[in-house]
Specification:
Layout: H1 8-25, E1 31-32, E2 42-46, H2 53-59, E3 65-70, H3 71-74, H4 80-87, E4 90-92, H5 99-110, E5 114-117, H6 134-143, E6 146-153, E7 172-179, H7 181-185, H8 189-200, H9 204-211, E8 240-243, E9 246-249, E10 255-258, E11 264-269, H10 278-281, E12 282-284, H11 288-293, E13 298-300, E14 305-307, H12 313-331, E15 337-347, E16 353-363, E17 367-370, E18 373-376, E19 383-386, E20 390-395, E21 398-403, H13 409-420
Parallel strand pairs: 1-7, 2-5, 2-6, 3-4, 3-5
Antiparallel strand pairs: 6-7, 8-9, 9-10, 10-11, 11-14, 12-13, 15-16, 15-21, 16-17, 17-18, 19-20, 20-21
Length: 430
């Protein structure tokens, strides 16, 4: 057993931080269980729903606990330095290997300090917790401490991954399980991972259909058009728009909104389930020009209206994945999309962004081309996206970022998954 040993300075800053966090969490009507005293340091593992999840988990942990965060947060001009000084977080670089962060977590635990992690590493686009690979169980077992599993409910409707604003509404935290180091020693890494996946698993829409909690404000639709960029009614690419709580398609007139419970509601001309034959839903005149521009024009087959095909982003996501993959397969080596006015940047030695170029990005099934630069997806070992229009990746030993007001980062990520052969691995979902 490792003795619990947290520096006095961090105990003080943590206690002050918890008081501040209680005030911040009031607008979410936040309630939580508290982790019982374990007698040894622990790793708290939780699902990840909002940018405030560290705050929620802190309120569930009376004992001071350290957290892992994206290193880009530490470069924020407003709060980066205070965060680094007071919280002493464990940084991990988005789009790069997290091996150094894993080593630092183990070092701190063996020094008697507790750590919280969100193993998904990114917030959900569709509200379902992403399963974790066996490597997570191996890491927890190697750390040699207690495991605490913690599950958050309601956070997806406070802030979906594409959103930069938060809504007001309930979030609840629950301590699901506490497993001592002795118990974990008797388990295999696969068994530990199975426990974590079971305990932190969440399905936001299924839970909300029972709870029907109310969420207000926050412009929840803004940004989703860069993620859900294919219209489920007419099939057009890149014709979606979003503003406030409303979204729609400029090609066919489909229009909807995200309601106070987080569901998608609205009407669409001639809307039917998108898996129906194309002739039953829309007439699409796809041309090489349209494919090159990333747009497949479509027009509704009827003037009457019907409910939207999907009332949730999970079903829309799974349908879009299937349609996107089919489009890529059928297109061969043709130009698939042209992403307009994206900015490529690089991280310098101080992790500051250094802009390299702003121009269109041409996407093919196996590569993205930006001016004279060619990034082949098989040569990119790691890639991740933030919100729906920022992407980080490594190529040729260089740590790059790509962003833009019209940039659809998910397209690049999906093409990368397809080329890497991991598109069907649920543990590698972007």
């Amino acid at each position: 057993m490792i003795n619990v040993d947290t520096p006095v300075r961090y105990r003080v800053s943590y206690a002050i931080g918890r008081l501040i966090c209680r005030g911040l969490a009031r607008k979410y009507e936040f309630e939580t269980d508290e982790i019982p005293e374990t007698g040894e340091p622990y790793i708290l593992v939780s699902n990840h729903l909002t940018e405030s999840d560290q705050i929620f988990a802190m309120l569930g942990s009376p004992r001071p606990i350290y957290f892992v965060c994206g290193e880009h947060l530490l470069r924020n001009k407003l709060y980066g330095k205070p965060l680094k000084l007071l919280a002493v977080p464990i940084p991990v670089e988005k789009g790069k290997s997290s091996l150094s962060a894993v080593r630092e977590m183990i070092r701190r635990v063996r020094a008697g300090r507790s750590v919280m992690i969100f193993p998904e590493g990114r917030r959900s686009y569709h509200g379902r917790t992403l399963p974790q690979p066996e490597a997570l169980g191996k890491f927890i077992r190697q750390a040699g401490c207690t495991l605490v599993t913690y599950r958050l409910t309601g956070g997806f409707f406070v802030q979906a991954r594409w959103s930069r604003k938060k809504r007001r509404g309930p979030v609840k935290g629950h301590v699901v399980g506490v497993y001592t180091s002795d118990e974990l020693k008797a388990m295999t890494p696969a068994q530990i991972t199975e426990i974590v996946n079971r305990d932190i698993r969440s399905d936001a829409y299924a839970e909300q259909r029972k709870l029907m909690w109310t969420y207000e404000g926050g412009d929840p639709a803004e940004g989703m058009e860069k993620y859900l960029f294919k219209c489920p009614v007419c099939g057009a690419y890149d014709r979606m728009w979003a503003k406030g709580d409303e979204f729609g398609c400029s090609a066919c007139g489909m229009k909807g909104r995200i309601d106070e419970h987080g569901f998608l509601v609205g009407t669409a001309p001639g809307a039917k389930h998108p898996d129906a034959p194309a002739s039953d839903t829309a007439t699409t005149d796809a041309t090489d020009t349209a494919a090159a521009s990333g747009t497949a024009p479509g027009s509704a087959a009827a003037s009457d209206t019907a409910p939207l095909p999907f009332d949730n982003t999970y079903d829309w996501t799974r349908w879009m994945e299937k349609e996107f993959d089919r489009y890529v397969e059928e297109s061969g080596d043709k130009l698939l999309f042209t992403e307009k006015a994206a900015t490529l940047f690089e991280k310098d030695d101080n992790y500051k962004d250094v802009d390299l170029a702003t121009c269109d990005v041409e996407l093919y099934r196996d590569r993205m081309v930006m001016g004279e630069r060619v990034f082949r997806f098989k040569e990119i070992p790691s890639l991740t996206i933030i919100y729906s229009d920022v992407m980080f990746f490594t190529h040729g030993g260089v740590y790059y970022g790509m962003k833009g007001d019209l940039f659809h980062a998910w397209k690049c990520a999906r093409l990368w998954q397809l080329e890497q052969g991991i598109a069907d691995d649920p543990t590698r979902e972007i």
